[in-house]
## 1
Amino acid sequence: MNDINIMQDLVCGAFSLNIALSPVQLEQFKTYLDDLLDWNRRINLTAITDYRETQLKHFVDSLSVTKAFHKPLPYACRFIDVGAGGGFPGLPLKIAFPQIQLTLLEATNKKCDFLRHITQRLSLTGVDVLCARSEEAALMSEYREQFDIVLARGLAKMAALSELTLPFCKVGGMLIAQKKEPVADELKAAAQAVTLLGGQIAQVIPITLSELNDNRCLVIVEKITRTPSPYPRRNGVPAKNPLG
């Protein structure tokens, strides 16, 4: 059975998102899937270990971020995936859109080892693996307010998530947070934090795919002013004591 048939769930999900994957890209996704599940036997990268579920709940879910793209991505658009874990959603987006520049931010050394391994294994260029906490990385001049698009998946509630992510986003850029409905109360609780950090909640985009029918959505935050210099606060404080 060839890779196209093996990866049929990914092919169908990507098609639903108007993304056509080439045979080379499908081969990359297949290698990614195999290595993810192999490494997962030694380090905790994912609770999902089924072939089909991985294609849908990791790969298609990651590609669903494209619902927030209202126009073609500019060449060398800079993305940062905060709390990248096993590489989601950043790496599937990089495979599908090789022109983007991607930083994978992850605090756990063993997960960073996997991210470096899979980036090399897939021959991906324009990918930087940064092993650090977001509270520390966001204070570094080479990362602070340098990114067009900031990605966050399963990172934290919106109030804490905003402090961990918006400092990376340049003015005019956007944060895309992958969430599940209902999110109204969470957004209400985060409104003060988002404003303080220079953001504005723009919209919530429902993910209406037959392949993903569990109330997933994208929370879009536009960066409208610079983040004040005291933020983010020191390690662990955003999660323990969210703004607002």
## 2
Amino acid sequence: MKVEEDFKVIDHYLCICMPKEVDHHNAAGITQRADDMICKREVKNLIFDFSDTEFMDSSGIGIILGRYKKISCFQGKVYAIHASQQIRKILHMSGLQRIIEILEDK
């Protein structure tokens, strides 16, 4: 991941552009960088941008769930944007749609 380009804070929102493949190989790096930015940059809400993501396994679900738990301590919200049908299906099958908002592309 290109750290500076893939993690941006804008108006208390942390936007994470997820990589092409979200799996156990890159989950720890995404988690660590996200947690650092949440704690150090006054982040109130979190956006996962799936524009480039073609594959996500349970590690991706863990990333989202863990960041949801962290950000909800600050009464923040988590959003998913630009999710393909495949990624949207994974989010729904895991039940994440009950705790995060999955925004539709128009």
